[in-house]
Design brief:
By secondary structure, the chain is an alpha/beta fold. It folds into two domains: 6-299, 3-Layer(aba) Sandwich (Rossmann fold), CATH 3.40.50.720; 304-485, START domain (Alpha-D-Glucose-1,6-Bisphosphate, Chain A, domain 4), CATH 3.30.530.20. It has helices at residues 15-26, 60-67, 86-103, 124-137, 157-168, 187-196, 218-229, 243-253, 258-266, 278-282, 291-300, 308-315, 346-354, 366-378, 452-485; strands spanning 6-10, 30-35, 51-54, 72-75, 108-114, 143-148, 151-152, 171-174, 181-182, 185-186, 206-209, 216-217, 234-237, 324-330, 333-342, 399-400, 403-409, 413-418, 424-434, 440-450. The chain has a seven-stranded parallel β-sheet, with helices on both faces. The protein is globular. It holds the Pfam family NAD_binding_10.
């Protein structure tokens, strides 16, 4: 285990950087982060445990402050969204970082780059990743460069392409790049390598290729994901479909924008596999997992707990006394957040939504809730036969009609998991957040993880009805909370 060290993490708002910061803190290291906007970190559970420097890598004075007193820096910056000149910008930023790092006496830079054998077939994206590593080394500061292919984990753009393509397209027209060999690696293993690199001797630069236990094609990655999700997918090879056309196809059929999809797809023109055993020799304690195990871990994150930071960011936006609605799509989950400010206390609002179901019903269009439960019973579901505890507030594990209480925080939060038959998984969450002594933010969130095309059709077909029902439910809950919290008038006899 590495000795505690004073470390700088750049790119801490990104997919790898945010997870690396948490892992380093757990290992006992003192962590400083350099970010352009500190507000983007405040929903991270480790926010108050790190030292935050706000600034850009191109701002020399701020970069100098961020690197001062640091032993090792992780360089996790890329400019894929910067347009056609992203490669040049990456190299310029890396050169600037390296020069400042040398001037302040930094001991080592650890950099995460991309796999791929140098040559004409190497894409602009992968070439820029490798040129960035060279720019860092040219500063004279020792650089440990880890090179990886597709990182498998919820939130990784590369993995999200696999997720959305597989979930949404039963018959895929596949160009040649889908059948190139690739060596994906789990995010947990990437983090293990990044942390273990701290134990390597300082003094020389190294380039280490890392990958998971399986070498397969992008097509087999799609098939493996489909198998774990219980989906059947057909891949139809076609002789021509350029990376540019493929990126637009991905953009049209998934939430992944073409600006990300194109460089990633172009990177698959050549094989991206580990070609030596340096990682196994240097890090014998790390035994990388296989692809399907990595996907299984990523799918576990399809729970509302993983999306609480996104909900919190929405909730912090100014909201008046009228109902607001926000819809997010992230990591395979659709999240619909309804909000309304009510004149009552959080405790009163909490008791209002904890009283839903059973004899009281669902306050608005209860007949629609009963109709959905009746349909559920017809197909073998639980319907509303279970009712709810009528003599007390619900507890975790209690049934409430077609739901089960999955999580609750007394006075603040109630989360219900849908036990009805669904082409996916669903949750309904209520939260009471204090605004002032007299005002409370009533937050109602719907979480839905669709399974395959039918899951998406189910959501969008019923969405107009759901919007009506959930808007009405929040309005009625607000009325009940304000009525129950109003001071009682005493009439003199």
């Amino acid at each position: 285990m590495p000795q505690p060290t004073r470390i700088l993490v750049t790119g801490a708002t990104g997919y790898v950087g945010s997870r690396l910061a948490a892992r380093l803190l757990d290992e006992g290291h003192s962590v400083r982060v350099l970010v352009r906007q500190a507000d983007r970190l405040k929903h991270k559970p480790w926010f108050r445990r790190v030292e935050i420097h706000e600034g850009d890598v191109c701002e020399i004075s701020k970069l100098n402050d961020a690197l001062s007193g640091i032993h090792t820096a992780y360089y996790l910056i890329h400019s894929m969204t910067a347009g056609s000149q992203f490669g040049r910008r990456d190299v310029e930023l890396a050169g600037s970082f390296g020069r400042v790092a040398r001037s302040v006496g930094l001991q080592r830079i650890i950099y995460l780059g991309g796999l791929g054998e140098s040559g004409e077939a190497l894409s602009e994206h992968l070439r820029s990743r490798q040129e960035t590593g060279q720019a860092l080394r040219s500063s004279g500061v020792p650089v440990t460069e880890l090179r990886a292919a597709v990182i498998v984990g919820a939130g990784s753009i590369s993995f999200e392409m696999v997720r959305y393509l597989t979930e949404r397209i039963p018959l895929m027209i596949c160009p040649r790049w889908v059948f190139r060999r690739i060596q994906p690696i789990a995010i947990d293993d990437v983090l293990s390598y990044l942390v273990a690199a701290l134990d390597l001797p300082i003094g020389e630069s190294r380039t280490i290729e890392i990958g998971g236990a399986d070498v397969l094609t992008y097509g087999k990655m799609i098939k493996g994901y489909a198998r774990l999700r219980g989906l059947r997918r057909v891949l139809l090879p076609v002789p021509v479909l350029t990376p540019r056309l493929s990126s637009h196809w991905v953009h049209w059929t998934t939430p992944v924008p073409a600006t990300y999809a194109r460089p990633l797809i172009e990177g698959l023109r050549c094989e991206v596999v580990v070609r030596n055993d340096d990682a196994a020799v240097l890090f014998p304690q790390i035994r990388p997992m296989g692809y399907e195990q990595a996907v299984s871990r990523a799918l576990v994150e399809l729970i509302p707990e993983s999306f609480q930071d996104a909900v919190a960011a929405v909730v912090e936006r100014p909201v008046g006394l009228e109902i607001s609605r926000t819809v997010l799509t992230d990591r395979g989950m659709i999240v619909e957040v309804w909000q309304k400010t009510v004149r009552t206390t959080p405790e009163t609002a909490y008791r209002a939504f904890c009283s839903l179901g059973g004899k009281r019903g669902w306050l608005y269009m209860s007949w629609a809730w009963r109709l959905r439960a009746w349909v559920d019973q017809l197909v073998g579901g639980v319907g509303m036969r279970r009712g709810r505890p009528e003599d007390r507030l619900p507890a975790e594990g209690d049934p409430i009609d077609s739901f089960q209480v999955e999580r609750m925080e007394p006075g603040r939060l109630l989360r219900l998991r849908a036990d009805m038959k669904l082409p996916g998984a669903g949750w309904l969450q209520f939260e009471a957040r204090p605004v002032t002594e007299e005002l409370t933010r009533l937050v109602q969130a719907v979480f839905y993880a669709p399974r395959g095309v039918f899951g998406l059709l189910y959501w969008y077909t019923l969405n107009p009805v759901h919007r009506l029902i959930f808007a009405g439910l929040l309005e009625r809950l607000a009325d009940v909370a304000e009525r129950d919290g109003a001071p009682r008038r005493h009439v003199k006899a």
